[in-house]
Amino acid sequence: MLLGGAPESPRPPVFELTSAYQDVEALAKVRKGLAEGAPFALAFIDMRMPPGWDGVETLARLWQEDPHLQAVICSACSDFSWESVSARFGQTERLLILKKPFDAIEVRQMACALVEMWNHRTASQQVEQALRRSEAYLRGLLHVLPDALLRVAADGTCLEFKASREVAPSAQLAFVPGGTLGDALPSDVARDMLAHLGQALGEGTTRSAEYELPVGGQTRRFEARIAASGVAEGLVLLRDVTRNPGRTP
Fold this sequence. Notes:
The chain is of the alpha/beta class. The chain is 38% helix and 22% strand. Mean pLDDT is 85; it is low at 245-249.
């Protein structure tokens, strides 16, 4: 504006287009796109495509292959009843009806809106899949760790506890969700662990300490590693490092 030039106009959306003249050809292209990892986002389907399937049957076959495909059925008023389409597919946001005759702007608006919806849904699915993979990885990691795991709030409230898989129950510490560190540990140990937790949360560092604790009628030594796992909670890994009699230190 300062230099007197015309402002840039927004760029129109760009679509990669392909076409099929019959139902079977369309089905083959959808299958090919899925196999190549490049699925179609949207299909405009004519209601009448003699001598093959009509638009409703074609869409049903396409959705069997790719249930995430967005679709627009193009039809004259006499081609079908909305009730028959609803009976076949139910209420779905993946399908719109475009009545003939239509204007090019209607097609562009539908394409923009439905492809954008498909993009958002695809992105959400990818995030969900990534979260599932991350959860599976963490579950596997927790399964192989020899440590007990305690999730604890900043005020010392125990949120979740997983006992060690490699220590006998008689030598296990016990933390009850909803209880506090002071309920499971001697008061001085609980205060010290809470102080380490506060430092870990405030500094974003990992703290470590060792404690001797009475468990199952004997004194055992535990190493605690404490790290922040959020703004107001942390994770405590507890490993029994008691030296067994007869073992070389």
